[in-house]
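Marked as duplicate of an earlier ticket. Keeping the data here for the record.
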Amino acid sequence: MRNSLFLPVAAIVAACGGYDASSTTGTSGGTQAITVTVTPKTALMAIGDRITLTATVSGGAAGTARTVTWSSSDNTRASVHPSGDVTALTKGNVVVTATSTANPQKSAAAAITISP
């Protein structure tokens, strides 16, 4: 399994409109901001490879849920398990996103390139 960071993918994603790899809410009324980050931010995989992405949710008021839901921009290219395990299915580019369950407006993503 290959799990190396692949920086040119970030350039491709940025050229296509990009995405924010971490997202934060504003602070108002004394509440802390919620931030979501995903690691690794980019990956190069071969068809059949599996990697595990890690999401971290920080901030928010005491008792704020620190969980995320995972989604793939193209389930025909890569599937993602609720634990963050990603399986490469077909050649191409895909973005896997972790969305905060406490604040669904906050998310972060990883850009993945899948080679044959």
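See parent ticket for discussion. The two ends are 13 Å apart (CA to CA).
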